[in-house]
Every structure is written in structure tokens, then in C-alpha cells.
């Protein structure tokens, strides 16, 4: 991690749901490469802990409480970022929920609404607020999932919302060109708190590992590396694309 460049020197990046797991690793990576990073999540104590950890690594960081489905908190996230740093160069939309393991046709309407609201709609509304402040050469990265390619029965509707992000990436890449690039990362299985109900079972974990070519689960650093690449000028001729980061696990649409 220490042998990295400074691709984000002088840049400002917002990462949603970034106080733990994949989101935190992405914020950390951007910060270690020179970005001023804005971290957020629903709980103040989580935000405070993340800010403390990042500052300890010499990263310039602002922490803001933000539940992405709350319009006022989304606006506050953008307003505080612009007030402190004056611009936005990178937005990583990472927030997601998976409130149910029910089959799609057995899912309650309230569950369907929450999945759509947090996993898809909030990303669009956040960008509506942020768009006026995005710089020329800016970058947006959505965090989807390999489950978006073939939604598994245990998380089918979650997978469908992640499929929607693949289409949203294509549509917004066209709409926001040429000044802003829009790409997507589709992680495989990563043992985080969010995925704990899948990866904590040893038999399930082993089956997932055996379904990858690299015989291991992903790490949060793997996802941060891929996201940082797409957000950086190293990917300046890439837009509208999804990078699957899943150790060779089969993906198809």
C-alpha cells in the first residue's frame, strides 16, 4: 500500500458509505494518493472513527453524516464539501442495502422501495446535487456487484438493483461526457460486515473461493485499487465501462 503514486494530488473526492469496508478502503486509497477525501455514513460515531483513522495516516479528510436516501443530508454532504474545498473531482457511490433474502415475488413493497431508493435512486439524486461542482476531467465510479450479472437466489432483488447500476453507468457516461467520465466496479465476494452473512459460513466461503480462478475471496484493498484506477487520469480514455473485480469468477448478462 505504501508503494503507490500520487495520482490525486490536489483533487477532492467524495465516497459514500465510507466509514468501513470497501468504502473506507477506497477513501483511504484516494487519500494516500494525495486527495482530500470526504467520508460519510449514517452514524456520527462511525464518521468520527473513520476520520481519526485517516488523519492518523496523514490524509486530509472531512467527515459528514449522510444517509443517502435523505435529501437534506445529501445536499449537506455536497455543500460542506464545496464550502471546505471549493470543488469536486471524484465521486464514488458506494452506499447499498440488502434488507431481505426473500424471493423477488415474495418481497414486501417496502423492501423493494428501500432497495431501489438506496441502491439506485440515491446515486442519481446525489449526482444531481453534485453536478454543478464537478470539474472538467472529473470522474464518477459506481460500486455495483458481480451479483448484478447473475443475481443469486439468496439476494436476487439486491442483484437486480446492481444490474441497474450497469445501465446507469452507460447512460450517464453519455450524458456527462466529455467533461466527466462515469465507470463502475463490480466486486466479487469480499469478507466485510456487509457480506458477513455469506462469508462467515466456512462451507459457503470455500465454495465461493473454489468458484474463482485465484482460489480466494477479494479484499477491500482489491476493490480500492480498481476504483482508484478508474477514477484516476490513468483511465482518462475509459468511460461507460464496468470492471469486474472477482478473481475470475464467471460473470455474464
From TrEMBL:
Gene3D superfamilies membership: NAD(P)-binding Rossmann-like Domain
Protein name stated in the entry: Indole-3-butyric acid response 1
Organism: Actinidia rufa
PANTHER family: DEHYDROGENASE/REDUCTASE (SDR FAMILY) MEMBER 4 (PTHR43943), DEHYDROGENASE_REDUCTASE 4 (PTHR43943:SF2)
Highest taxon listed in the record's lineage: Eukaryota
Family stated for the protein in its record: Belongs to the short-chain dehydrogenases/reductases (SDR) family.
InterPro entries named in the record: NAD(P)-bd_dom_sf, Sc_DH/Rdtase_CS, SDR_fam
Gene Ontology molecular function: any one: oxidoreductase activity, acting on the CH-OH group of donors, NAD or NADP as acceptor
Signal sequence interval, chain numbering: none
Spans traversing the lipid bilayer: none
Amino acid at each position: 500500500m505504501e508503494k503507490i503514486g500520487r495520482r490525486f494530488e490536489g483533487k477532492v473526492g467524495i465516497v459514500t458509505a465510507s466509514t468501513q469496508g470497501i468504502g473506507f478502503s477506497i477513501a483511504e486509497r484516494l487519500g494516500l494518493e494525495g486527495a482530500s477525501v470526504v467520508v460519510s455514513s449514517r452514524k456520527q460515531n462511525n464518521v468520527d472513527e473513520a476520520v481519526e483513522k485517516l488523519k492518523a495516516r496523514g490524509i486530509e479528510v472531512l467527515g459528514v453524516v449522510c444517509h443517502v436516501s435523505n435529501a437534506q443530508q445529501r445536499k449537506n454532504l455536497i455543500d460542506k464539501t464545496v464550502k471546505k474545498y471549493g470543488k469536486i473531482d471524484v465521486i464514488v457511490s458506494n452506499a447499498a442495502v440488502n434488507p431481505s433474502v426473500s424471493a423477488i415475488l415474495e418481497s414486501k413493497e417496502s423492501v423493494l422501495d428501500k432497495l431501489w431508493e438506496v441502491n439506485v435512486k440515491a446515486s442519481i439524486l446525489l449526482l444531481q446535487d453534485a453536478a454543478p461542482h464537478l470539474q472538467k476531467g472529473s470522474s464518477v465510479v459506481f460500486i455495483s456487484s458481480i451479483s448484478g450479472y447473475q443475481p443469486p437466489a439468496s439476494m436476487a432483488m439486491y442483484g437486480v438493483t446492481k444490474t441497474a447500476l450497469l445501465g446507469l453507468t452507460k447512460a450517464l457516461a453519455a450524458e456527462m461526457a466529455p467533461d466527466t467520465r462515469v465507470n463502475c466496479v463490480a466486486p466479487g465476494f469480499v469478507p466485510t460486515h456487509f457480506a458477513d452473512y455469506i462469508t462467515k459460513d466456512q462451507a459457503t466461503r470455500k465454495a465461493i473461493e473454489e468458484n474463482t480462478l485465484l482460489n480466494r475471496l477479494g479484499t477491500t484493498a482489491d476493490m480500492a485499487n480498481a476504483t482508484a484506477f478508474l477514477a484516476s487520469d490513468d483511465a482518462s480514455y475509459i468511460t461507460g465501462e464496468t470492471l469486474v473485480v472477482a478473481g475470475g469468477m464467471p460473470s455474464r448478462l
